[in-house]
Write a structure and sequence with these properties.
elongated; alpha+beta; single chain
Length: 225
């Protein structure tokens, strides 16, 4: 392929614009955000506490019924003995459930304390958060402005460069690597590998309008930059 040295240098400019645009897109996507999840944790544990309270209530209700029957003395000796065993079992179960309930209540208290601390911290950091938000917005605007400028410059280069050369550049770049790179000091700056002496001699002796490519990464190599 043939292309003028100026067109080849323009392709290199387009590659620089593309690298800068990729970097800006990454910066925009990774600007910091702030989030607090303690309220959700409290909601989950509160639901767990309600379930534990319901379990205790069921056991207490059953226990009260059995104790009432025992106190009334109605029933056969075998039935009363069975009730006594059940009351003992229910009391043990009630003790276990109340321990669970107490543990959950302590967790709720701990989470509420954490939320209070976070709210107090949020109040003291309100100004700082506002400043960070402003800085983030300013950074976004600056990056978007820079991106717009780069796209304008890139479009100007694309419109004036040899069409076939640009299509080759885009085809190479679509593979994930550099579409074009400078040939400097016997090295391809696309893959940063040195070119062997035979290939380097051939490249340097090629006509100025001959489009040469790296044997390793296949990008367009631009001389004289």
């Amino acid at each position: 392929m043939k292309a003028s040295p100026s067109d080849q240098r323009q392709i290199l400019d387009i590659q620089r614009h593309d690298l800068a645009l990729t970097s800006i897109a990454h910066k925009l996507a990774t600007l910091p955000e702030i989030a607090i999840g303690a309220e959700t944790e409290l909601s989950d544990v509160t639901r767990e506490l309600k379930r534990a309270e319901g379990d205790v209530e069921q056991v207490v209700t059953r226990l009260q019924k059995d104790e009432a029957r025992l106190n009334s003395g109605t029933g056969t000796p075998k039935e009363l003995e069975s009730l006594q065993h059940e009351v003992v079992s229910l009391n043990a179960r009630r003790a276990e459930l109340e321990e669970v309930e107490l543990e959950i209540m302590l967790r709720v208290d701990g989470i509420k304390a954490r939320i209070d601390e976070l709210k107090a911290l949020e109040a003291t950091l309100t100004t700082e958060i506002a400043e960070l938000t402003d800085r983030k917005n300013m950074a976004s605007l600056a990056l978007e402005s820079e991106s717009t400028q780069l796209k304008t410059e890139r479009s100007a280069n694309v419109s004036s460069v040899d069409k076939a050369l640009y299509e080759l550049y885009e085809k190479i770049r679509s593979g994930g690597g550099a579409g074009a790179a400078a040939l400097l000091g016997g090295q391809c700056l696309g893959c940063n590998l040195s070119i062997n002496s035979i290939d380097l001699k051939r490249m340097l002796e090629s006509a100025e309008d001959e489009v040469i490519r790296c044997e390793e990464c296949r990008c367009i190599l631009v001389r004289g930059v």
